[in-house]
């Protein structure tokens, strides 16, 4: 199904968890859980330790979360809401389609660099069945829709038909996600082909944008340059 241009969804400003007081236990658990996640990762994070840091009994988190995965889902949801909020601000800045798309992708990479633990939780396989957490799915969809709409607007300017815009969106997503993961896994800069990280980010986004702006006919030529029996690498 092709991605159609539509009115962007409004991203709600994420509610920042505050210090614990009576009636605000859920936010306090999310705040401390996120801090612990950044320190030890999702595998070693425990509800018991989160409760201890908040200063409540071990049973207290069960009032708001059925278990550890439910707390992790809430933390991931907060991450998507923060990313969507940043992307919404980009959308409202009235930039050119090119600059808006680049800024959307840059916001994703910057979020990953600043919040590695939450990013790995959002993007990784730790939360196996996301359908169990509809609020998490919705927050993810809002953030991705803001990004996808900006890519589609830029692609439409350069002659990409609606039937191929999903391809462009996924290609752009692959670039931003790939860059973020290479940085967080300490694969960059590569010693044998060293390029400063910020320069590599800017160059990679520029190459992607140049490919999109070249239009579908030029990209089709590049795809056709590989012989049918030549394996992809």
Summarize the structure.
With 233 residues, this protein is mainly alpha-helical.
Structural description of this entry:
The protein is mainly alpha-helical and 233 residues long. The chain has a single domain, classed as Orthogonal Bundle (Tetracycline Repressor, domain 2). Helix content is 65%, strand content 0%.
Task: Name a few traits of the molecule.
elongated, 9 helices, mainly alpha, 65% helix, 233 residues
The CATH superfamily is Tetracycline Repressor, domain 2
Q: Predict the CATH topology.
A: Tetracycline Repressor, domain 2
Distinct helical segment count: 9
Give the beta-strand count.
0
How do the helices and strands line up, and which of them pair or pack?
Blueprint: H1 25-44, H2 47-54, H3 68-91, H4 97-114, H5 116-123, H6 134-157, H7 162-184, H8 197-214, H9 216-224
Helix pairs in contact: 1-2, 1-3, 1-5, 3-4, 3-5, 3-6, 4-5, 4-6, 4-7, 4-8, 6-7, 7-8
